[in-house]
Design brief:
This protein is mostly beta strands. The protein has one helix and five strands; from the N terminus they run E-E-E-E-H-E. It has a five-stranded antiparallel sheet with strand order 1-5-2-3-4. The two termini are 14 Å apart.
Length: 99
Amino acid sequence: MVPTLRDGDVVLVRFGGAVHAGDVVVAQFASGPDRLVVKRAERPTADGWWLTGDNPFAGGDSTVHGASRVLGRAVAVWPIQARWPGRWLPRRLPPAPST
């Protein structure tokens, strides 16, 4: 999910509730139900949600695994660069980067 999220960022997730296209979500693919993924919801399908990553070169999204089951929606992120007691305030997740 680089550049939206970086390794080590802390993400606040609201489980359940409505999901809209463009939201960053936590989901499971049927091909790997024991693994949680963080991707961007693109569109609803008959089998769940079609997910994409913000980094087109990373892979591991619905183009490989198919539709997914969305568990929750990310609502805020604490960037890894922000360390306590400094600037440790959450920020809203930005929209998908334009390609």
